[in-house]
Amino acid sequence: MTTNTYIGVGFSSHADPLEAAKIASSQAKKQIHQKKPNLIIVFSSVHFQGRKLLEGICYIFGENTNILGCTGSGVITEAGVLKYGVAIMAITSTKIKFGIGAVPQINKDHPRESGEQFARSALKNLGAHTKGIGLIFSDGLIEKGSELLDGVKEILGRSFPIIGGSAADNLHFSKTYQYYNKDTLNNALIGTILSGEGIFGYGLKHGWRPLGRPHIVTQSSGNIIQKIEDGPAIEIYKDYFKKTLEEIKSLLIQISVLYPLGIYLSEEEEYLLRNVMHINPDGGIVCQGDVHEGSQVRIMLGTKETALEAAQQAALEAKNPFKHTPALGAIVFESVSRINLLGHRANEEINIVKNTLGENIPFIGVCTFGEQAPLKSLEYRGESHFHNEAIAILTIGERHALAE
Amino acid sequence: MPWLNDLLQQNARLAEDIFYVMEPFLFLVVIALAVFVLLKNKQIKKLQNSLRDLQRTYQDLDNQAKLIIKTDLELHKTQSELDKKMSGLYTLQKISRILSTTLDENEIFTKITAEHISELGFDKAMAFITSPRQSSSPNIIPNIKSKIGYNDKDIEEIFNNKLTKEIFDPVINHSHVISSLDAKIHPKELSSIVKILKIHSFVCAPISTKEGIIGALFVGSESMFSPITLGDKEIISILATQIGQSIENAKLFEETWRSHQELEIKVKERTKELSRALEEINIVTKRKSDFVSAVSHELRTPLTSIKGYASLLSAGKLGEISAPVKERLEKINKHSDNLSNLITNLLDISRIEAGRIEMKIEDVNLREILDTLADLFAPQFKEKQIEFRRDLPDGLNTIPADRGQLQRVFINLVSNAFKFTPEKGKITVRAKRIDNSVQIDVEDTGAGIKKENLNKIFEEFYREDNEINQNVKGTGLGLSLVKYIIEAHKGKIWANSELNRGSTFSFILPLTRSQ
User: A264 at the B interface (CB within 8 A)?
Assistant: First the structure.
C-alpha cells in the first residue's frame, strides 16, 4: 500500500519563541521527508505566544503554510507533559483535504452563531470533498462552550464527529491564545474539517466516578444552573464540602476541577462532566457547558487510578479502528484537571497513551480548559459534546478496519 | 300505573328472597375482605418500615459521600503540595547540576532560565547583587544579574518604590527569607507591594557567600490559583544558597585559574631561560671539546718529536752523554709520558662527549678482566703489601660492555684506590646482580673523601685538596673519563666514603643490550 499521508512532530523549549519554533519545525519537517505540509498544528505554553512563534514556523515551512493551534497550561510530547515549550505537528497528505475556518471574535452572548459561522466557512473551504471529522480549537475562557459546539453541530450534523480543545493559559484563567496562520487570536474559534472516510479514529474518557445521591436540576438556562432541588444550586457544594459560601468562592477553581458536577445521560457510558466557573449572586452556578432542566446531577470524584484507566480506554478506542495498519499520528487533548489530579503521575498517563497507541506513533497534545469529542466510540456514532476533566485523542491513519 | 307497582313489589320480594338465601355467603365475603385489608395493612407497614430504612441508608451513604469528599479534598491538598515539592526538588536538582558545572560568575545567573522558573511553579524572577550600604540607600537600583518576566522599566519602578524595601531590606540586611505567606507587612501594604511587583505571591531569599550576603533571589507567581506554599519557600531558599555557593566556587576557580596561569607563564619563562642556558652550555661544551681536540692533536705531534729526540739522546745514539744529562733526559721522557696520558684522556673525554666514540658492546668476561688487572698491579700491590680481593657471584660470568673501555674504568678506579690506600691496606672489587643490571663496587681502606666533595670528584680537573694529592701528580681527568664511559654504557656511577676509613666507588651497568 502506498503512503499518502506523512505526519511529523517536533518540540523545543528554547527561550526564544522564534528559535523554538524553528527547532521544533525542523524536527517535524525532517519526519515528513522535507515535504510541503498541508497543515501545521502548533501547541505552546503561554510563554511562547505571539508573532515570533508563527514567524519561526513559516521560516521553516514557507510563507503560506496553514497553521492552527492554541496555547495550553502545558504541551504534551512523548516525553510527557511539559509546562514550558512548543510542540509542532506537520501533516502532509495527498488524500486528506483540509477545510479551514476561523471566527476571530466569538459572539459571547450568542456563541451558537459563531459556531455556525465557523462551520460554514470551514465547509466552504473544504469544497466538494467528503467531510471526515472536525478539529476545533477555541478560547477556553468562554462560558458557553456547549452552545458554541451546538452551532458547529447545527451545520455539520449532530452525529458528525467533532474533536478539539479549549485553549488554556498557565492556570491564571486570564487570557488564552489561538493560532491561525500568521495571527495570534484571543476569544476565537478556529479549526478545520478533514476530508476522508475510514482514516480517523478517536476516543474520549474521563474516569471520574459519581459519589453521593443524584440531585435534580429544577431550574436552569443554558450553562447556568439556578436551582437544584428547588434550592440555590451552590448549596450542593456547600453541603458536600461543609464550607461557607465565601470559602467555596475562594476554592471554587480547585474544587470545581477536582469535583465537577456529573450529568447522567441514559444512553451514554460515562457521566458528562461540568466545571463550575462562577457563582451568581442568587446562588446559581455558571458552568462551562449546558445543563438541562430536569437533569440528574451528582458530585463526581476522580482518582489517579480511574483517570489512568480512562486514558488507556480512550487510547484503545482511538487505536481500535486501525487494527491492521497502525495510525500515522495522534493529537491529544488533556484536561488541566487531570494534570492537577495526577500530579507527578501525569507523565505516567502520557506513557500509557504512548504504549497503547504504539511506540512509534508520533503525537503531540495540549492541556486544555475544555475538550470536545463524541462520547462513544466510532461504532456508536455518538454525538459530540463539550467536556471537562477528559482526555480526548484523535488518530489519523491511512485506512482503518471499518473502511476495509 | 298498577302494573308498575306490582312489578316493583315482585322485585322487592325477589331481592328479599335472594338476601335470605345469600346472607351467609355475604357475611363470609365481608370477613375475608376484612382479613385481606388487615394483611395488606401489615404489609404496607412493613414496606413503610423498609422504605424508612432504605431512606436512612440512602442518607447515610450520602453523608458518607460527603465525608469521603471532605477527606479527599484534604488528601488532595496534601498530595498537591507534595507533588509541587517533588517537582520543585527535581527542578532544583536540575539547576544544581547546571550550576555546579558553571565556573563563570556572570554565567551562573544566565543558566537559570524561564523554563526553570516555570517548572518551579513561578512566572517572574529576578536576581541581583548588592551591598548592605546600597540596599539601605533609597533609589539605587542594584546590579540586576537576571530578570525573567520583568523589563528594565519594571525594575526601575520596583526599586524606586520605597514600599518594596519592606521585602528586600530584611533579606539583604538580616538574611531573612521573606514570602507573601509570612511577610510581616500590613495586608494593605502587602497588596500594594504585590501590585508593584506585578505578582500575586512571592518568595525572596538571600544569596550569600563567605563574605556575607551579596544579593537576593526573588520569584513571584502571577496566578491567584497557584499560590505559594511553605515548600516553595524552602526550595527558593536552597536555590539562593546554591547560587551563593556557585559564586563562591567561581571565585575560587578564578583565583586558582589565575595563579595557575601565572605559574604556567613563569614556568614557560624559566623553561625558555633554561633552554637558552642549555643551548649556550652545549655551544660552549662543543667549543671546548673542539678546542681540546684541536689543541691535543696539535700538542701530540711536537710531544712525539720531543719524546723521540729525548729517547735518541738518552740511548746515546747521537754520542755519549753524561749521567746528569741522562738523568734530565729521563725526566723529560717521564713528563712527556704524563703529558701524553693527559692528552689521551682529554681527547677521549671530548670524543665521548661529542659522541664520536661508539661503545663496541660485546660479552666481556669480568673474571678475566679482574685477573688481568691483578697481574698488572701485582708489583705495586706487593710493594705496598696491599691485599687485592675479587668477589664475584657464581653465574655472573660475562657482562655486555666495551672491553677496552671497561678495562680503562677498572684501571682508573683501582689505580686511584691504590694511590690513596696506605700500606697493608685492602682493595676489594665486588660484583652483584640487581634485576637486569650488575653493580660493581671498588672498595678501598684508604684516606677517604670529605662528604661535601663527593659530588665534585667526577668533575673534570677536580682534585681533592689532601696530602696525597699534593705529593702524587695527577691530571684530575681519570674519574671524569670513568663517568663518561659508564654513562656511554647507559650506566651510573657514584661514590661513598668515610674519612680515614676508605671509599667505595660503585657503578651499575645494564645486563641487557640496548637497541
Answer: no
Q: Is the pLDDT of residue A380 over 60?
A: no
Assess contact for A262 and A211: CB atoms under 8 A. no
Residue of A15, A45, A240 with shortest CB distance to B69: A240
Q: Residue A367's beta-bridge partner residues?
A: A334
Q: Which of B115, B116, B124, B228 to mutate to test the interface with A (most CBs of A within 10 A)?
A: B115
Nearest to A15 among B62, B65, B113 (CB): B113
Q: What is the ipTM of this complex?
A: 0.79
In a 3-state reduction of DSSP, which class is residue A403?
A: helix
Report how far residue B489's alpha carbon sits from residue B409's, in angstroms, rounded to the nearest whole number: 12
* A301 with B72: Cβ contact below 8 A: yes
CB contact under 8 A, A240 and B225: no
Domains along the sequence of chain B with CATH: 105-256 (3.30.450.40), 358-510 (3.30.565.10)
Convert the pLDDT of each residue in B134-145 to its tens digit.
544 555 678 888
pLDDT tens-digit series, residues A53-79: 999 999 999 998 999 999 999 999 999
Phi, psi of B338 (to 5 degrees): -60, -45
Q: Are A190 and A103 in contact (CB under 8 A)?
A: yes
Task: Tell me the β-bridge partners of B417.
Answer: none
Tell me which chain A residue has its CA closest to the CA of residue B117: A84
Say yes or no for a CB contact (<8 Å) between B118 and A47. Answer: yes
pLDDT digits (tens, 9 = 90+) for A249-296: 988 888 888 899 999 887 677 899 999 988 999 999 999 888 999 999
- Residue A274's nearest CA partner among A294, A293, A299, A254 is A299
CB contact under 8 A, B223 and A170: yes
- Kindly report the nearest CA distance between residue B119 and chain A, in angstroms: 7
Residues of A with CB below 8 A from B118's CB?
45, 47, 83-84, 170
Domains and CATH numbers, chain A: 5-205+306-403 (no CATH), 209-300 (2.40.10)
Tell whether A304 lies on the interface with B, counting CB pairs under 8 A: no
In angstroms, the CA B164 to CA B194 distance is 9
In chain A, residues with a C-beta closer than 8 Å to the C-beta of B226 are 171
Q: Which of B360, B352, B346, B388 is nearest to B478 (CA)?
A: B346
Rounded CA-CA distance A339/A330 in Å is 19
Which residue is listed with cell 691530571? B475
Q: Assess whether pLDDT exceeds 60 at residue A404.
A: no
